[in-house]
Amino acid sequence: MQKAVFLDRDGVVNIDYGYIGQIERFDIIKGTALALKKFKDMGYLTVLVTNQSGIARGKYTYSDFLKVTSFMQANLSLYDACFDGIYCCPHHENAYVEQYRVSCECRKPKPGMFYYAERDLKIDLHHSVMIGDHATDLFAARRAGISSLFLIGEHLKEESPLCPEAICYKTIGEVVEFIRKNQ
Ligand SMILES: [Mg+2]
Ligand SMILES: [Zn+2]
Predict the structure, then answer these.
(1) Domain count, the chain
(2) By Cβ atoms counted within 10 A, which residue in 16, 31, 72, 158 is the most buried?
(3) CATH classification at residue 27
(4) What is the DSSP letter of 98?
């Protein structure tokens, strides 16, 4: 069994401009690649768990999402920091695109994507970590049995009261240092 660091995408890995379906709008946040590499060096798998309701809403397609994913992985590979697993929820219950109009089990705050990763990558969820920029990311992880919850990014003021057990930092680099000292 492997421990893993789960990360949300928009607002954690890249700047969240809203509904990002093109590589031209995919800007990796400074420090992300180095942080991913350090997590790997500490023996964690790195797993992306991202809600992409923009697909259901018809803002961009699943194929666009895959192009952005390839671009992201290519950039991270320069630092030896590719994700080991990538899970995406393309659904929304009020979707414009009928194919994705589902009340699914994978859209965070539901825990589905964590269970898919557990199954595929043999992950030990109880010794894993979640890093998100919204409380809903952390609720999903908590439901899956992850107790090490980190909130980072631009929304700490609004989101931290919603998840009092979350450890809050401005940057992912600070999370790496915390985990390094406390593991
Ligand atoms: Mg986010
Ligand atoms: Zn879903």
Answers:
(1) 1
(2) 72
(3) 3.40.50.1000
(4) G
